[in-house]
Amino acid sequence: VGVATVLSISLVVLWFLSSRRFVLVNLTEDTCRWDGQLDIPIHYEPRIGVHMVTVGIGVGPGRFRNVKCVLDTGSRHLTVARSALGRVEDGTWIPVAGPSFIHYGTQTDAVRWVEAPVRVSGRRVCHDMRNVTLAGAGERKCRGAGCFNVLGLSVGAGATVPFLTQLARHAGVRPTFCIAMRRNGTGSLRINHECADRNARRIRLLDHPQWYLVRLDGVVCRGTDDRPVASCPSRLMVDTGSNQLGGRPDFFRALRTTLRPGDALVFRLRDTADNAFEYVVPPSAYTHAGHLLFDPHQESDNDVLVLGSMFMRGFQLTVDVAARELAVSANI
């Protein structure tokens, strides 16, 4: 699962665990309307700096229990704590085969795989799906801000079918989605919808079995002058499951040496026509509660820099899985 799913800086474990609320809704099949697109609200949890969406998990005929999930473009599956769902009526879930554990950057879940009804609700419409393969988490080992339910949006080969692939098949649409993140952190997850405007820059996604990676030509600290950061990885990963900028320690040593108060971080990218352009992140986006959102860590692939969700505020990112493209628009 995602290389650096560092879901939150470790600030308020007890607050998050004590504030979870799960609402049971009674909705029949004919109350859910689907018009080919979904616009799902993204909720920002400011005290822990994570971005979440709400998904309904079937617990009986026509009954769904809403759970909050971290939106994660670095992992593939819908994973929900079994304890969050209460009583599930017999026959609602069908056991299926799958791996016994899912590993995230800060979380390891012992899981049992099932097919279950799932409801994905937008602002005006919703879509019910039958027999969706998901992971029901039992024992969990977590670091940082605690354990999270996860809605994964990456794709690729594996023992179980990715959630995005299942959603696209159920709805009869392309596996395309847009994440539009406002500067205050709220936003939308739009399924079968492209947010790109005429000023969007399209970037070719690099080959990888799971992650959304693009070529990275360097990172610059920009104040009154431009200062390139040494030891920069050559690939950038779009990972909403992290809220930080993550990568190998030598890069972050160089970054801290180069960075001055008030600097913007400039990521140098190239579009599909091989034209250079800049993805500019202001200092307000890479600090949280007085902390720099930098996460030095060693991974099996150390030539990847992880761009977390806090670095996406003010941008719209459209992922077209079939076309292997990422479209970027700024200033929303």
How would you describe the overall organization of this protein?
The protein is mostly beta strands and 332 residues long. Helices cover 8% and strands 44% of the residues. The protein has helices at residues 13-19, 163-171, 249-258, and strands spanning 23-26, 38-45, 50-60, 63-72, 78-81, 94-95, 101-103, 107-121, 126-142, 150-152, 176-181, 187-191, 201-204, 213-215, 218-222, 226-228, 235-238, 245-247, 264-270, 276-281, 287-288, 291-292, 294-296, 304-307, 315-320, 325-330. The strands form four sheets. The chain has a six-stranded mixed barrel with strand order 3-4-10-5-9-8. Strand 2 (38-45) and strand 3 (50-60) form a beta hairpin. The longest helix is centred in the last third of the chain and has 10 residues, at 249-258. Mean pLDDT is 85; it is low at 1-30.
